[in-house]
């Protein structure tokens, strides 16, 4: 791949352009908003100049509702050897392209499973996709050259290729991406009118659950509108669990003869939650490991994180994961260091010797 045209210079398009430009590909940028393309170019993602001829790759990174029309225009104009889109839904755009009578041998639907709460070219990063799954949805009619170019793009972005059927992909992201966004937003919406006293009690749990609720509503409305059926199916199952949970809680509140049955129903939901959470891939995509947590009081000041990691290194301990729980209104917090169980005692002893205050 020597040349690429990226149509749509938001977070995903600009991030892909930055990765390609960093690998020596001549990238041309196009956007319906010239200012966005100009910002992406200023960040080193490519040039706003029109390509002189056909590009090796055309990446369409526009909202789902505009994917088919944008691709149809590009294919009709012969702007590239291979055409990819990076939308978060795959079945709908392909069916729209088929209805438009497009030759789809040069097209491949893809979806990089990466993103962040902020959007736009200024939020883009060349390493956004590193280590993340990048779904490819080829069909029997997909040209081999197109698949190879797609794999080259994934390689340049240091992502991990995953081949799936388009409709299976849409059902999967409804479960692992689109429904969590809605549920997070629903929980966060309860805080909008909550008493200030209640809000001040927010801890790490509510922060974890509502983190993605900070995402752009307009962007998510476009995504959900492109995949409504599969998302509604997952939400219907969640709603059934919610309805049963509400009934169980009412029964417990009434303290009548149904209390034992209600408690059993609640326990079933919680245990199924344990089972599902245990299936979420852990470090490096492997099965979740069981770590021991060493919790340390840490000051909110420059150098503290570097110091505690350096002390862990002196102890010969690898930090497998980390979480910081901030103390509201205080210049301190708790850092939770997740390590292999056999390393926990040694790390705790070393940190105490180095003057750190540990917590249970």
CATH superfamily membership of the largest domain, which one?
NAD(P)-binding Rossmann-like Domain
Let me know the largest β-sheet. 7 strands, mixed
**Overall number of structural domains:** 3
Structural class: alpha/beta
Radius of gyration over all CA atoms, rounded: 24 Å
Give the structure's gist in a few sentences.
Belongs to the prephenate/arogenate dehydrogenase family. The protein has 13 helices and eleven strands. It has 360 residues and is α/β, with parallel strands linked by helices.
Describe the structure in your own words.
The chain has 360 residues and is an alpha/beta fold. It folds into 3 domains: 3-164, NAD(P)-binding Rossmann-like Domain (Rossmann fold); 170-278, 6-phosphogluconate dehydrogenase C-terminal fold (Orthogonal Bundle), CATH 1.10.3660; 292-359, Alpha-Beta Plaits (2-Layer Sandwich). It is 49% helix and 17% strand. It has helices at 11-22, 34-42, 64-76, 91-99, 144-156, 166-192, 196-199, 204-210, 217-226, 228-254, 259-278, 304-314, 341-353, and strands at residues 3-7, 26-30, 55-60, 80-85, 107-112, 133-137, 160-163, 292-299, 321-326, 332-339, 357-359. It is globular, with a radius of gyration of 24 Å. The mean pLDDT is 91. Belongs to the prephenate/arogenate dehydrogenase family.
């Amino acid at each position: 791949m020597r040349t690429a045209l990226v149509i749509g210079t938001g977070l995903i398009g600009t991030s892909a352009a930055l990765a390609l430009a960093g690998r020596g590909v001549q990238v041309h940028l196009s956007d319906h908003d010239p200012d966005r393309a100009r910002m992406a170019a200023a960040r080193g993602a490519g040039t706003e100049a029109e390509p002189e001829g056909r590009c090796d790759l055309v990446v369409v990174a526009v909202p789902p509702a505009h994917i088919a029309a944008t691709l149809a225009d590009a294919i009709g104009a012969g702007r590239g050897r291979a055409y990819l889109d990076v939308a978060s839904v795959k079945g709908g755009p392909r069916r729209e392209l088929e209805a438009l009578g497009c030759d789809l041998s040069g097209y491949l639907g893809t979806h990089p499973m990466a993103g962040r709460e902020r959007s736009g070219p200024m939020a883009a990063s060349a390493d956004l996709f590193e280590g993340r799954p990048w779904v490819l949805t080829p069909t029997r009619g997909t040209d081999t050259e197109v698949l190879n170019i797609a794999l080259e793009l994934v390689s340049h972005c240091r992502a991990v290729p995953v081949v799936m059927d388009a409709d299976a992909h849409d059902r999967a992201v409804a479960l692992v991406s689109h429904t969590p966004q809605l549920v997070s937003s629903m929980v966060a919406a309860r805080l909008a009118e909550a008493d200030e006293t209640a809000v001040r009690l927010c801890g790490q749990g509510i922060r974890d659950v509502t983190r993605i609720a900070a995402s752009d509503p307009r962007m998510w409305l476009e995504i959900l509108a492109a995949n409504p059926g599969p998302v509604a199916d997952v939400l219907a199952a969640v709603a059934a669990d919610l309805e049963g949970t509400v009934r169980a809680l009412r029964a417990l509140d009434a303290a009548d003869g149904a209390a034992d049955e209600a408690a059993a129903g609640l326990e079933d939901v919680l245990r199924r939650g344990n089972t599902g959470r245990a299936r979420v891939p852990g470090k490096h995509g492997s099965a979740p490991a069981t770590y021991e947590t060493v919790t340390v009081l840490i000051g909110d000041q420059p150098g503290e994180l570097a110091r505690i990691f350096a002390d862990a290194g002196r102890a010969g301990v690898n930090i497998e994961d980390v979480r910081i729980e901030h103390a509201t209104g205080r210049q301190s917090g708790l850092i939770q260091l997740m390590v292999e169980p056999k390393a926990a005692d040694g790390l705790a002893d070393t940190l105490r010797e180095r003057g750190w205050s540990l917590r249970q």
